[in-house]
Amino acid sequence: MYEFFFTLYPKGIQENISRELNYATFKVRNDFFAGAVLFFSFGISLGLALQFAKTIFTGLNPILALIIVFFAGFIGLQFLVYMVLSIISTNKGKFIEMILPDALQLIAANLRAGMTIDRALMAANRPEFGYFNEQFSIVGKEISMGIEVSDALMNMTKRIKSKKFKKAIELIVTGMQSGGELSKLLGEVGENTVHQKQVEDKVKTNVTTYLLFIGAAVGFAAPILYGLSTVIVKVIVSTFASVSTPAGGSGTDMPLSINMTPELAEVLPVFIKTYAKVSLLTLAIMASTLLGQIKEGEAKYGVNYLPGLVIFCLIMYFGVSIAANALFSSILN
């Protein structure tokens, strides 16, 4: 059944999901997993829409509210699952990037000791290499079955999501095709990878100031300003709602004239509160995306910062609102 739901995805999305599942090395068929995600996303989104559509959109047409909540939930769940898959596969790639220099040096040492390439790969298996050991085994088996060494190495890049790893393998393959000594190539690529990692770590240290600035602006400044703004709007509405124009006067001689109707006085504070919450959520999403891009090099890692940033923003916002309400309670009452 789930295989049928997988066919409902567009062709491009099917390929992307299958590729991410291959990178993540889940022990389940791609079409079964993706079809199950589609099926359960549909059911959960429909349940959320039936349960909360009227609560979230009180003044909206019930059918329109149902459609909005359903599609928001469905797209959100699909996006969340894809992001989790992408992060899992990328983390595996980063782990391999971290151990790649040691692995290459070990393989080079085995080759210098007189081993063939397939034996050198098998002998390089170490418990600390974890997932990489599986790749060594696969490459070794492919070579022993008669597949060219360059082809077996390039096949490994299709199972590991890492641009650095792919570039390193391409460099090794190019050197082999040019007649270079494989053991020397592996050693040099390993040394270059270590140097590149050191440079990246130094860059990450230098951008800490930007991370602190973004976190302070979104986590402190924005919630405080929005919290004060909502209370100030309530004070203004309360003040102008209690001011009446003198009998027979037009009010044109007043320095500031606002026609504060009861309907406007009731709707305006609610609108400002809703606007503040939506704006804070938008800022948190944008800031977390930026933090992920700066800190990890990819925007999708902002998912790690998003929950904490949203919770902190809302706590600050409601805290400031409560304090400001207490401060201006005499005016509001």
Task: Please give a quick description of this structure.
With 333 residues, the chain is an all-alpha fold. The protein is 79% helix and 0% strand.
Which properties best describe this structure?
3 domains; 13 helices
Number of strands: 0
Q: Tell me the span between the first and last alpha carbons.
A: 61 Å
Order of helices and strands: HHHHHHHHHHHHH
Mean pLDDT: 78
Estimated radius of gyration: 30 Å
Structural class: mainly alpha
Low-confidence stretches: 247-252
Helix content: over 70%
Instruction: Indicate the overall shape.
Output: elongated
Largest sheet: none
| Helix segment tally | 13
Structurally, the number of domains stands at 3
- How large a portion of the residues is in β-strands, by DSSP E? under 5%
Structure description:
The protein has 333 residues and is mostly helical. The protein has 3 domains: 89 residues, no CATH class; 105 residues, Receptor-associated Protein, CATH 1.20.81; 110 residues. Helix content is 79%, strand content 0%. The protein has 13 helices and no strands. α7 runs antiparallel to α8. The longest helix has 51 residues. It is elongated, with a radius of gyration of 30 Å. The protein starts with a helix and ends with a helix. The relative contact order is 0.07.
